[in-house]
Amino acid sequence: MKLHPRNGGARAQPRARRRFRPTLAACALFAAFAFAGELAAQARTYALDPVHTRVMFAVDHAGFSRAIGTVSGTTGTLRLDPGDWSSARVEARVPLGRLDLGDDAWNRASLAGNLLDAERHPDAVFVSERVEAAGERRLRIHGRLTLRGVTRPLVLDAVMNDIRRHPMPPFRRTAGFSAVAMLSRADFGITSWPGVIGDEVEIRLEVEATDAPDASFSEPGPDGVLEE
User: Fold this and answer.
1) How far apart are CA 227 and CA 195, in angstroms?
2) How many whole angstroms separate alpha carbon 72 and alpha carbon 208?
3) Where are the domains of the chain?
4) CATH architecture entry for 44-211
């Protein structure tokens, strides 16, 4: 310590203060890198699990009941950061040949040319355009559905069920979602049997996706639509 020439007070040496500056700067830089690393770790790419992902649909059957069917085997890619849903992205490919209405003859009729025309258009394809938060664990996925060669907008109202390490081997990080949507079959050119099959189709999705850092998204065609 040195005495101040005017009032005899004590003051700290300037050199002592300067010695702390590099240390504080290093701490701030380290914290910034740690924070950036934490954010990067939150953004992950997942592959849809075709075994535990299922599409369910319900449609009016001549006013007597709602026919219910399922489609298994959906594949695709999901990228998400639970801290920033606006950066999320998903594409899914639904193999229509796996459709099951509980009866072989009914399955064949649904896949025929006058309805789903699955021979020429074997897959339904959904590609997200934007995702927005809609409350705690809830989100709205705005995208495009291509079905029977026709592409139309579709909004999925989804709930994030959980994202964590799966309790069964191989113990991979898994994301689970449930979602619902409504569509008009006439919008996709499916207009046969209007007196027997309703136009409004209710869609329900149960989705599981597993951590897959190497999973990639498909490249759309010249018209911006993925091939069916």
Assistant:
1) 32
2) 12
3) 2-38, 44-211
4) Beta Barrel (2.40)
What is the pLDDT confidence band of residue 43, given thresholds at 50, 70 and 90? Answer: confident
Report pLDDT digits (tens) over 101-158.
999 999 999 999 999 999 999 999 999 999 999 998 999 999 999 999 999 999 999 9
CB 65 within 8 Å of CB 228: no
What tokens appear for 104 in the block? 């072989």
Residues forming a β-bridge with 10:
3
Q: Would you say 83 and 117 are in contact if contact means Cβ atoms under 8 Å apart?
A: no
Rounded Cα gap, residues 47 and 91, in angstroms: 10
Separation between Cα atoms, residue 33 and residue 29, nearest integer Å: 6
**CB contact at 8 A, 159 and 138:** yes
Question: Going by DSSP bridges, is the β-strand pair 44-48/75-80 parallel, antiparallel, or unpaired?
Answer: antiparallel
- Among 18-27, 49-58, 148-157, 188-197, the range scoring the smallest mean pLDDT is 18-27
d(CA 218, CA 145): 15
Q: Where are the alpha helices (DSSP H) in the chain?
A: 14-42, 104-111
- Partner residues linked to 71 by β-bridges: 55, 99
DSSP H helical ranges for 6-120 = 14-42, 104-111
